[in-house]
Amino acid sequence: MSNDYLYTVISFLTSLLTAIIAMPWMLRFCKKRGFYDLPNERKLHHHKIPRLGGMVFVPAALVGMIAALLLMSAAQPDVPTFHATTFVITGGIFLIYLIGLLDDLFGLRASFKFIVQFVAALVMPLCGLYIDNLYGFCGIHELPLWAGYAFTVLVSLLIVNSINLIDGIDGLASGLSLLALCTFTVLFAQMHSIGYTLFSAALIAPLLVFMRYNLFGSIVRGTKTFMGDSGSLILGYALAYLAIKYAMSDAGGTDSTSDPLLTAFTLVLVPTFDLVRVAIGRMRHHVSIFHADKSHIHHKFLAAGFNMHQALAAIIAVQVAYCLLNWGLHLAGIDTTIIVVTDILLFAMLQHALNLRISRHQQQAPHNRKTRK
Which structural domain range is residue 55 located in? Predict the structure, then answer.
């Protein structure tokens, strides 16, 4: 095992231990202060559930990274150097974390949260972290600076909000994020980009601990929790940060035939496609894009007759299938534009199939109720 892998494992394990210790404390804190996600007509749960599970993500990941970096500095002289931009992007991360935590604790207007997200998204290009190449998508290669900056802010907002809004059933946002984070950990490790490897590995650990409580926790014993905006927003921002870094044309370790933008895009494809679909649908019906409804993909699977676990498995399977499909098409030499158009068509076909199943399920529901009587 190389030193980089050793430090990655240390970052992961330290973060994991921190999250294991912190999560029960968070549950007691929610119980004492009454910070619960209460059921309503939009919610799928029928009991009050602690909503601060995501509060653990940033502290645990921070402890894991610091532990690994301290060991690196003690063992070798060439540790990753930190520039002023590193502290600026850290400020963006904590801004997103703070606004999510405040929303979980006190509730904030969606429009205000979006403004803060926009400010945090501006941090990335200001730090020199921006998408500067589309690698031939729609015939476009290098982007001018202004276009790269604008596109980066748009992509960041898209990813952050897509993870936030797909967090509607147990394990969905966390499962999709886990899949992407594990892949980014491997990709950055292959590039010997130790800072990003440590970051993604450190964030995987508290996510695993959260999923244990979210998917298998007991409502009766008070061990079940939701991640809240403090978790979903930070996951979205972290994935945007990693995706944009990997998509940069100077993200070393890529060969001339690779397409890092396609790879990064594919890892967040399902939640981002779903957000775009929902936003277009709301605009068509002259409804605010911030309007809360039940039109997201997990709502549609449930309306089609799937239970929560089946919907979770199906959506994760769709994301994995897209990863395998795009990887295979790229290896076969298919143009990136054709791959993306294929992805869009397949997603449209999935929505059509769901709509047909929802219609049949709604028609059968009255008959089933009469039969039971």
Answer: 3-372
* Helices of type H across the chain: 3-33, 57-75, 84-106, 110-126, 145-165, 172-190, 194-216, 228-247, 260-267, 269-284, 297-303, 308-331, 336-372
Q: Are 341 and 262 in contact, with CB atoms under 8 Å apart?
A: no
Task: Name which of 331, 319, 193 is nearest 259 in CA terms.
Answer: 331
Which candidate, 342, 228, 359, 233, places its Cα nearest to that of 300? 359
44: confidence class by pLDDT, cuts 50, 70, 90: low
Q: Quick one: pLDDT at residue 291?
A: 76
Contacts of 161 (CB under 8 A, 6+ apart): 114, 117, 236, 275
pLDDT of residue 364: 79
Radius of gyration of the chain (CA): 21
The model's pLDDT over 198-237, given as tens digits with 9 standing for 90+, comes to 999 999 999 999 999 999 988 888 889 999 999 999 999 9
Backbone angles phi, psi at 92, to 5 degrees: -65, -40
pLDDT at 20: 97
3-state secondary structure of 12: helix
Backbone φ and ψ for 348, nearest 5 degrees, come out as -65, -40
What does residue 135 show for φ and ψ, rounded to 5 degrees? 55, 35
Going from the C-alpha of 14 to that of each of 71, 177, 202, 214, 250, the distances in angstroms are: 12, 20, 8, 21, 31
Q: How many domains does one find in the chain?
A: 1
User: Using an 8 Å Cβ cutoff, are 11 and 33 in contact?
Assistant: no
Q: If you ran DSSP here, which 8-state letter would residue 136 be given?
A: E
Q: Give the lowest-confidence range in 257-261, 274-278, 292-296, 299-303.
A: 257-261
Distance CA 333, CA 335 (A): 6
Q: For tokens 């604008």, what's the residue? A: 150
